[in-house]
Specification:
Elements (H helix, E strand, L loop, with lengths): L15 E6 L5 H13 L4 H7 E5 L22 H4 L5 E3 L6 H14 L3 E5 L3 H4 L4 H11 L4 H21 L3 E16 L5 E10 L11 E5 L4 E7 L8 E3 L3 H11 L10 H6 L4 H13 L3 H23 L5 H7 L19
Parallel strand pairs: 1-5, 1-7, 2-3, 2-4, 4-5
Antiparallel strand pairs: 5-6, 7-8, 8-9
Helix pairs in contact: 1-8, 4-7, 6-7, 10-11, 11-12
């Protein structure tokens, strides 16, 4: 009996970093320093070409930007120019469904670094997860659990989009002091500090390779690391050196193999399967290359479904017979997700 298990192989990867901290701790500047090193951006022009930035902090990222249109600035390093170059979008509302679109757009455009500052707004801000839960709950007669049932897939989709981005990702999280009311030995209520915690759903840190807490003294305390050399480190004003350590670790492995797309398309038995696979195509920035193949497979699936609905036919045999069948009436059915 053949086994479905295969030997594990170390592969090259892209960074997945979360930086948490209060206002003024240096999350934005640290993230930019790391992305410049991770993407190999040496000049302002490099940064503009390689880094996409979603700024939810009232354009605070502009304080670290330079006027790239000034003569000679594009050829300068950030140290020489006194700032960084990057492409930015500032949302007004924080609907995670729009964030998925922005991540897809950055992937298609070929950016090799993506920064979200901060993800906390997509949790508590206008149009964010908590607001969506309330909205969906009202549609279910005010039942909060039903609201979460509808919103969880939306939340999972934006996290999956971040983790599937084909470049390096840095996510900033707002932190605030958490408190707990306890009862002392004398029976009186007392307030206990639980420390600084990210303003975000519990468990988000599991998605990242490196998670660090920044404090007002600009010290980064690594609270989670898949890189042993960085575990439990305390780093003052982290930047290029940390970025190079991460690159050495990430580049230690085989180049990742591309998916066998013809085989993956052939395995799609429904429009729903096709839509899921198309999302992966968008994450990898391969929409233009694979659009025609997805459209053709969508036509085959549609033809098979029509054949299966005819009296006396079975879906499995219809799928087999419909392989390579032209679209009805000469029209090309729209591939799931491909029309965007």
């Amino acid at each position: 009996m053949s086994s479905r298990f295969m030997p594990a192989t170390r592969k090259k990867a892209k960074a997945r970093i979360a930086l948490a901290g209060p206002s003024g701790s240096g999350k934005t500047l640290t993230g930019l320093k790391l992305l410049y090193t991770l993407t190999g951006a040496a000049t302002i022009a490099d940064g503009l070409e390689r880094i996409a930035f979603v700024d939810t902090e009232r354009d605070s990222a502009d304080k670290y930007a330079v006027n790239s249109e000034l003569p000679g600035v594009g050829d300068m390093t950030p140290e020489e120019a006194g700032g960084y170059g990057f492409m930015k979008f500032s949302p007004v509302r924080y609907d995670p469904r729009q964030l998925v679109e922005l991540i897809d757009e950055a992937a298609v455009a070929g950016y090799t670094g993506f920064m979200l500052d901060s993800a906390s707004h997509y949790w508590f801000g206008p149009g964010g997860i908590l607001e969506l839960v309330d909205l969906f709950a009202r549609n279910h007669g005010g039942r909060s659990m039903d609201g979460w049932k509808d919103v969880r897939p939306i939340e999972r989709a934006y996290i999956e989009a971040l983790m599937s981005f084909p470049g390096h990702v840095v996510v900033c999280l707002r932190s605030k002091q958490r408190y707990e009311i306890t009862e002392g030995a004398d029976g009186r209520k007392q307030v206990s500090k639980l420390g600084m915690q990210p303003d975000q759903r519990d468990g988000l840190e599991y998605e990242f390779d490196l998670v660090g807490d920044l404090d007002q003294g600009h010290y980064l305390r690594v609270t989670k690391s898949r890189c042993d050399a960085l575990a439990d480190q305390v780093i003052h004003k982290p930047g290029a050196e940390l970025g190079h350590q991460l690159l050495d670790w990430l580049d230690n492995g085989e180049p990742p193999k591309d998916l066998d797309w013809p085989k993956a398309l052939a395995a799609c038995a429904s429009r729903e399967d096709l839509a899921v696979l198309w999302q992966r195509v968008q994450r990898l920035g391969k929409t233009q290359k694979l659009r025609d193949a997805f459209t053709a497979r969508g036509a085959e699936i549609s033809a098979a479904r029509r054949a299966a609905e005819a009296p006396g036919t079975q879906l499995d045999s219809a799928l087999t017979e419909a392989a390579g069948a032209p679209a009805a009436n000469g029209r090309q059915p729209e591939t799931a997700g491909a029309a965007r």
